[in-house]
């Protein structure tokens, strides 16, 4: 047991013993005072430690965050059984052993059933408070852990996306300069035209590389310009076909994806006038496809693999839909998902964090409201019972507020932990899953 809990139980025991000694004890002697302290400490420590050990054991075996419903059911059953046994034992020690006001036969004959029932209810209220406090402590730990994890995920995703985008600028420039270098030797006039076209294309690269998505229409216009640049070098050795549906033009793809894939087509395949390379760009079943006839060239040096890997990783950060690759003896095809909604990695993470934080704040307020209600119930009802038994023991009226308020507490708890929130969270998950599939 923690020192803090031990000190708390000591203060509770002392306060309880003083209350019962001055209010209910007729002969205020030192012996009676010590007996009252002994009995108070027995009830406090047996019930407190017993329920505390049960709570600690269940926290290890069935944490609230991992199995809330299962934990709630097991907690109810365990505290009912444990408090029933502990109360009967404490009352037996009190009335039979310490006060000697009854024999063992009298105690178990039913004479003390009312006192046992009353004490069990008090013990259950205290136990409910302990379990509620344990739930709140674990909720705080889980919330802090989730906040830290979400921050790490957000920073990691943001850094990863920035790293992927920063690959595009030097990658394109390096490959373009390689092409220009080849053209200078092969055809100086074409090299001049290539240089002029490259400046326009590079401007697009600089404008688009910082965006998460661009429209299919913008990407196609850029791809056509880039294809003209390639035609400048390869002339009739390469042929391009564009066949994209009009309804797909306003949808979105990853920027510079076509340029990177066109580069791959040229890099990995040979193209001659006798055996031209045919590259077709078309839309098919919510995907933008780039297909070429397979004319694999021997690689002098190993490819860096930046192009296709970059596209796959950027798509993985934006959507759950995958980039598909098809390869046969005759052709090679890459299918890029066309997205209907334009997500933003950084803003989405920020928005999701803000919304999650707002939901968490609202959730914590609801939970605090419930536990405030429960704690008030645990404090007020026992005092009403004591007042009722002192002032009019023949007229039992505390049942009515205890039952009415108890039903209200149960209904409040159901709305917070069971019916309302489970349904709402399930619907939120369904909506998010539908959005991520797009």
From TrEMBL:
<dbReference type="Pfam" id="PF06580">
    <property type="entry name" value="His_kinase"/>
</dbReference>
<feature type="transmembrane region" description="Helical">
    <location>
        <begin position="114"/>
        <end position="135"/>
    </location>
</feature>
<dbReference type="GO" id="GO:0000155">
    <property type="term" value="F:phosphorelay sensor kinase activity"/>
</dbReference>
<keyword id="KW-0812">Transmembrane</keyword>
<keyword id="KW-0808">Transferase</keyword>
<dbReference type="InterPro" id="IPR010559">
    <property type="entry name" value="Sig_transdc_His_kin_internal"/>
</dbReference>
<dbReference type="InterPro" id="IPR025698">
    <property type="entry name" value="2TM_dom"/>
</dbReference>
<dbReference type="GO" id="GO:0016020">
    <property type="term" value="C:membrane"/>
</dbReference>
<feature type="transmembrane region" description="Helical">
    <location>
        <begin position="35"/>
        <end position="54"/>
    </location>
</feature>
<feature type="transmembrane region" description="Helical">
    <location>
        <begin position="370"/>
        <end position="390"/>
    </location>
</feature>
<protein>
    <submittedName>
        <fullName>Histidine kinase</fullName>
    </submittedName>
</protein>
<dbReference type="InterPro" id="IPR036259">
    <property type="entry name" value="MFS_trans_sf"/>
</dbReference>
<feature type="domain" description="2TM">
    <location>
        <begin position="358"/>
        <end position="432"/>
    </location>
</feature>
<feature type="transmembrane region" description="Helical">
    <location>
        <begin position="396"/>
        <end position="419"/>
    </location>
</feature>
<keyword id="KW-0472">Membrane</keyword>
<keyword id="KW-1133">Transmembrane helix</keyword>
<dbReference type="InterPro" id="IPR050640">
    <property type="entry name" value="Bact_2-comp_sensor_kinase"/>
</dbReference>
<feature type="domain" description="Signal transduction histidine kinase internal region">
    <location>
        <begin position="159"/>
        <end position="237"/>
    </location>
</feature>
<keyword id="KW-0418">Kinase</keyword>
<feature type="transmembrane region" description="Helical">
    <location>
        <begin position="74"/>
        <end position="94"/>
    </location>
</feature>
<dbReference type="Pfam" id="PF13239">
    <property type="entry name" value="2TM"/>
</dbReference>
């Amino acid at each position: 047991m923690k020192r803090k809990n031990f000190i708390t139980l000591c203060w509770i025991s002392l306060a309880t013993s003083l209350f019962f000694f001055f209010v209910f004890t007729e002969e205020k002697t030192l012996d009676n005072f010590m007996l009252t302290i002994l009995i108070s400490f027995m009830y406090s420590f047996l019930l407190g430690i017993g329920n505390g050990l049960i709570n600690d054991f269940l926290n290890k075996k069935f944490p609230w965050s991992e199995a809330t419903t299962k934990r709630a059911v097991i907690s109810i059953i365990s505290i009912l059984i444990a408090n029933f046994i502990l109360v009967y034992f404490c009352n037996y020690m009190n009335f039979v052993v310490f006060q000697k006001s009854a024999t063992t036969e009298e105690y178990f004959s039913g004479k003390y059933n009312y006192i046992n029932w009353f004490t069990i209810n008090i013990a259950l209220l205290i136990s409910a408070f302990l379990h509620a406090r344990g739930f709140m402590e674990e909720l705080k730990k889980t919330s802090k852990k989730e906040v830290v994890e979400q921050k790490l995920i957000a920073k990691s995703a943001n850094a990863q996306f920035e790293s992927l985008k920063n690959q595009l600028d030097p990658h394109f420039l390096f490959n373009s300069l390689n092409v220009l270098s080849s053209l200078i030797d092969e055809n100086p006039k074409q090299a001049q035209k290539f240089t002029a076209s490259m400046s326009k294309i590079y401007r697009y690269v600089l404008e688009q590389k910082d965006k998460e998505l661009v429209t299919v229409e913008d990407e196609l216009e850029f791809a056509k310009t880039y294809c003209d640049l390639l035609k400048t070098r390869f002339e009739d050795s390469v042929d391009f076909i564009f066949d994209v549906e009009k309804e797909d033009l306003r949808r979105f793809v990853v920027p510079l994806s076509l340029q990177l894939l066109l580069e791959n087509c040229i890099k990995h395949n040979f193209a001659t006038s006798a055996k031209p390379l045919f590259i077709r760009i078309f839309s098919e079943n919510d995907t933008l496809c780039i297909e070429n006839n397979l004319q694999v060239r021997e690689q002098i040096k190993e490819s860096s693999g930046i192009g296709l890997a970059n596209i796959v990783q950027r798509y993985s950060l934006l959507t759950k839909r995958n980039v598909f690759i098809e390869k046969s003896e005759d052709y090679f095809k890459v299918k890029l998902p066309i997205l209907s909604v334009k997500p933003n990695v950084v803003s989405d993470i920020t928005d999701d964090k803000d919304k999650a934080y707002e939901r968490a704040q609202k959730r914590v307020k609801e939970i605090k409201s419930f536990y405030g209600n429960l704690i008030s119930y645990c404090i007020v009802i026992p005092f009403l019972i004591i007042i009722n038994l002192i002032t009019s023991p023949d007229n039992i009226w505390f049942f009515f507020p205890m039952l009415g308020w108890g039903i209200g507490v149960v209904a409040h708890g159901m709305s917070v932990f069971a019916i309302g929130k489970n349904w709402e969270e399930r619907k939120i998950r369904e909506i998010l899953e539908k959005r991520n599939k797009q």
